[in-house]
Amino acid sequence: MTEQTTSVEEAGPESGPHTDVPRSAEPALVVPPLPEGPPAAVPAEVQAPVVKVRKDRRVLRAVLRWTAAAVVFAAVGSAAAYGITGMERTDVPGLATRTDGRWDYPTIVRPPLPSGSPGPFAESNKAGAHYADLRELLLPAPKGAEADASLRGEDGWLDRKTFLTQYGKTDRETVDQALTDYGLRHVAARGWTAPDGTRTRIYLLQFGTATAAYELVTGELANYDSPAYALRGAALTERDEQFPDKVSVDEVVRYAYTESKPYGAEQAREAFLLAGDTVALVVQSRKGAAPEIPFQQTVVLQSQLLG
User: Fold this and answer.
1) What is the DSSP letter of 138?
2) Cα dihedral sign for 176, 178, 181, 186?
3) Of 31, 87, 191, 221, which has the fewest Cβ atoms less than 10 A away?
């Protein structure tokens, strides 16, 4: 998938030119000498015009300047909001550009829903079901990538045992039992190797209801600071602090992790995505270190397909 900044100096009371009339231009007010004796109060009709005129002019100028400033800020705010909503996915903060390592994915299009079927987050869809073909909800491989034939499965459906090989032998039985307890229905998968050597594996696991998927992820698979079960060869994995929180998809919950140092010959990154009745596991690994930009891009694009 798929992130210019406009700065505007703040306008204030001193932003407009000073337009006070010079004192020499103001009409002189002649007050007759007062009689001897105790001082008498100057009549109101004599002193009021001088003070009132000067005060009203300054207040009026201040009001006009602040009103103009408010109009400018409102216009700038509207333009910024339009700019954000009108961004291409390549401009979204955190996903960077191709020159920063972003992969060249084909245009992402959600598969059509069966006639009369609601989307997974429609109010009428109480189960949060994805009625579109799960296999069509898998993110396609980017340009130049080599497909992983081992994840094609039979007729596009991956058997559970192949999915479980992502985990170490000591955890496979436990994860397998959890999948059974929460009613796993299907597994669809796709994988590829990018020209830079990064391997990607995406698994979509569909359950009977959104509640079952939610309880599996939050109660069994994903913790805030680390996954509950380590991937094979990635024992030390922690929360990915570099994944930008602002890059998210409505209704899709994300848990992103990265293998921490010291790791072995390669580094792995992984993310669980919770979307209605479907749980996605996205895994990327590469010899040396797994780049973060393609990982973020892949996770967000897969989230959009499920959202």
Assistant:
1) S
2) negative
3) 31
